[in-house]
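S2.1 Query sequence (glutamate racemase)
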Amino acid sequence: MKIGIWDSGIGGLSVAAAVQDVLPGVKIHYIADTAYFPYGGQSQEILVQRALYLSHSLVSDGCQLVVVACNTASSAALECVRASVQVPCVGVEPAVKPAVQMSQSKHIVVLATQHTAEGPRLAALVRNHAHSARVSVLPMPGLADMVEAGQISGPVVTSMLWSQLAGPISEGADMVVLGCTHYAFLRDVLAEVLPEGVTILDAAQPVAKRVKFLLHDAVKSDSLCVPPLMNGISKGAESYVDLKVTGEQVQVEEVLDRLSSRGAKLPRSILFRACSRRT
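Output structure tokens follow.
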């Protein structure tokens, strides 16, 4: 069983690590579309083109489920991908609904890229699930770029985060939603910055659980021609991530080494595979 995951860069590896936690033997094919990073600077047309190309590439590689592990791309192109590929497709979105449900103060914060913060998908989530809760959406321009460069701690990162969070936290916000998969690598520094009683939510675990559910459901309904899932994946199989990079592979290797040295949770057994440039 293989699943495909793609993102504009390394952020979606946080989702891949969560998938490995719930499906320990799954084979993951991952594409980091670094030649087009950051997606926030791309037009809607380019985002749809990349989404379709990357998703179809993973299906052609034999992946039986595709995860669009990018909030910007999910907002811009998820429905196009679902209409185009012949396998289940999972997107990511800020965890507004569970945050509102869990919040005691009924005030939550969403950290997001500029594109996601201004997009219709987040607006719909807030409209449909906030009810009487207050939702403070904080655009964080440049933060994903810092993570993509391997910068997940230090005074610059801390200052950027707290300069935005200080106001809502002082006003009683008790939930911080991470609206970009890159931000999952900032959990440790956020835990240091935020006061006790403030909870951090990201999309990695819910997406991983959704992937597991869909694969089990597909096997039970015989919509995928695969052996029983628990026999084929989770009993003794060795998990790995087959990683393609559309930009410069050496840069990504260096960033992953940097993240690993700083304690970031990365997937097990990342194997790089050649990918044609700017395809």
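Residues 67 and 107 are 30 Å apart (CA to CA). Residues 225-232 have pLDDT under 50 and may be disordered.
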